[in-house]
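ingest -> validate -> predict -> emit
validate: passed (alphabet ok, no gaps, 316 aa)
predict: started
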Amino acid sequence: MRTAFVALLLLLLTTLSPTPAGAADNGEWSVRPADSAITPRAAFELPAQPGATLNDRAVVTNTTTAELTLRLYVADAHNTERDGGLAVRGVEETQRDVGAWGKPERDTVTVPARSAVTVGVTLNVPRDASPGDHVGALVAVDTRVRPADGSHLGIQRGVGARIYLRVEGPQQPGLAVEDVRFTARSPQLPWTGTGESTVAYTLHNTGNVKLAPRVSLRVGGVVLGGPGERRLANVPAELLPGQKVRLTEAWADAPFAGWGQVTVTASADHVRGSGTDGFLKVPWLLAGCLALLSAAWLLLRRRRRATRAARTAARD
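emit:
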């Protein structure tokens, strides 16, 4: 029971919105950077030098009619393996990057009903911090444990405002597509059903800056059916430095026959990466029918020749 409770707790705490940066808001409370003198901010976007100390402010807003007590902490962000969405480490997990460098001025804040509280946040960037992007979040977690519907498990809720910290130094974007797998499951007879083919691949940010990848698929060789090229949709909006995500996408109108290769190409910020997988797709039922028809035609032709030969011999 305890293991199930902790797993559910961390899942609900760590998942962030899969959309690009925006103020974190779950309908009851929100966390966002305090507005600058020039423009509102949706996320903490901070340039820094190694060894620098950065001070900023966050606004925690309670939109409910009751007082809320929230636990604050700074966490490392990462891409989830399941779909590449952005997530953060839980409060009890070891923080190694932004989560280890940052600390709010208060670990716990009590926000009155329909009110907001401003909290300072400090980031101490190590002198040996690697250049490029480091991504995390300032997370506010409800201290209450609520019962889950239809279960004996309890849950806690949390939201996080994203922190994008860019450490000065060489920016080296890099992107790779690895381990492409094309699995063809088209119907044995063309146009008699819906295919269930899939394309799976690993998207790997090999550089030191975050990327917004675009991924396309191209088919080469001798094939029947299916478009020659298509854009893949299930792609993470942000791929963090060093992160790998395994993605799978259904392909309903894939080629139903032929041989060749499937090439998956990813591009972002003037960098590209490609991976390929060869395939041989033979609709065996159709091939068997064609073979039977060919055999029947050859047999009929042979019989006709034998009949003509017998008639010629009888006349002689």
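The longest helix spans residues 284-315.
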